[in-house]
Amino acid sequence: MKQLPVLELQEIAKELAETGKRVKVLWQEPGSLAFVARGREYRSEFHINGSDEVTYMIKGTMNLHYRTPEGKEEIAVIPEGSTNWMPPNTPHSPRFPPDAFALIVERQRHEGEIDKFQWFCPKCDNFLHEETFVVSDYRADPVSQAYKNFFDNEDARTCKKCGNVMPNALAEAAKTS
Fold this sequence. Notes:
The protein is α+β, with helices and mostly antiparallel strands. The protein is built from 3 helices and 11 strands; from the N terminus they run H-E-E-E-E-E-E-E-E-E-E-E-H-H. Strands 1-2-9-4-7 form a 5-stranded antiparallel sheet. The longest helix has 11 residues, at 9-19.
């Protein structure tokens, strides 16, 4: 039997803050995936995956934006020390600042399973763009790759309904860091 892991969440949060990294995978096994995430000030997409998710806020507060089955955007506020459960296939956008940290526990993806990242126009809520990934190893940080693909493509950030161009949040974040 493997040694059972006991991990210090505050130390992991401190490590992420000091290194500037966004995610540290704690374990990745066929039935379980756990990681600590540092907030991304530019997070705006809705992530869709086929796993239940449990979020525990280690430090700070998360505004968990999600879309109802009818497509309406709602927000669940998760304060420090609190937890939340989210059912599979719920479009969600965990928004919290870079000095906040969350523990996320979900199921590791099945072989060939696709994660989706969707953006909507901030002005009229029209669907803008979708990135898809097969996430076989969460350490590859698919969220960062989805953001790079989206924000590097002005056409993807341009609303076909109202003409609004979503600003390049990655470029803006780079200016302030």
